[in-house]
Amino acid sequence: MYLADEAWPDLESYFESESLALVPLGSTEQHGPHLPEGTDHIIAESLARAAAEETGYLCTPTVNIGVSSHHRQFHGTMWADAPAFRDYVESVTRNLASHGIDRVVYVNAHGGNVEHLREVGRRLRDDGTMYAIEWMWDESIIERIEELFETPGPHGGPKETALIQHLAPELVHEDRIADARDGGLAEFDETTGRVHGARTFYDAIDTTDNGVFGDQTDASADAGAELFAAALDHLCRLCDWLDDQRFDDLLPKGHV
């Protein structure tokens, strides 16, 4: 069920019988010369709506702009300052609590949102409002990604390229994929951008000229379909697990 498509009287039965909602979140930011700026929110919304379709749980509209100031040097990138993002997401989530929702899965596709969604979840849990957890699609299928790609890349790499080739192929500039690899940072490891153990970079452009990492030429729509199906399975099973929990068991434990 997609909340924005429903008339309010038709949502009453859901709120009477269910207490879980999926909230997709992404970003609007550069993803290299070959992918659309909406890459992250396309992925998040696609997964959340597919999970809602498969499980019957409620999916809300997508938060399309996230914490992305580290991509600001590239044309078109939009971002929310971290405190504003946290406050906005918390406010939206508390709206759901007023209708009886007491557990939320943040279906996230942007790494810059992770720590802030965790903070919002802690606030909501600590005051007993609800249990809200962040789920990042690629973290649920790490082994599958590593099996498919030699250099997956944390941003704009083959895993995201493959998903957009699967979900929105008309938005992929196939003729620029080799340029994305050659103009980005194809090879990297845990020491990249670090000096004597310190992380020395703040923005994407500090380590990659065109904003992306990995070898995008490894991507394909078939690989994207495989990744999507695998991630969707984890998301659906997470929702069912969360729905089965006693709410009191999800709240903070008492002081020792």
What does this structure look like?
This protein is of the alpha/beta class. Helix content is 42%, strand content 9%. The protein contains 9 helices and 6 strands. The chain has helices at residues 8-17, 39-55, 82-97, 114-126, 142-148, 158-167, 177-183, 221-244, 247-250; strands spanning 20-25, 58-59, 103-108, 131-136, 194-195, 198-199. The strands form 2 sheets. The protein has a 4-stranded parallel sheet, sandwiched between helices. Strand 5 and strand 6 (198-199) form a beta hairpin. Helix 2 packs across helix 8 and helix 6 (158-167) crosses helix 8 (221-244). The radius of gyration is 19 Å and the shape is globular. The N and C termini lie far apart (42 Å). The model has no long low-confidence stretch (mean pLDDT 96).
Question: Which keywords apply here?
Answer:
about 260 residues, alpha/beta, four-stranded parallel beta sheet, 9 helices, globular
Uncertain residue segments:
none
Number of helices: 9
| Mean of residue pLDDT values | 96
Estimate what percentage of residues fall within beta strands: 5-15%
Radius of gyration: 19 Å
- What structural class do you assign from the helix and strand content? alpha/beta
Work out the helicity level: 40-55%
| Biggest sheet strand line-up | 2-1-3-4
What is the succession of H and E elements?
Answer: HEHEHEHEHHHEEHH
- Main pleated sheet: 4 strands, parallel
- The geometry reads as globular
Number of strands: 6
How far apart are the first and last residues' alpha carbons, in Å? Answer: 42 Å
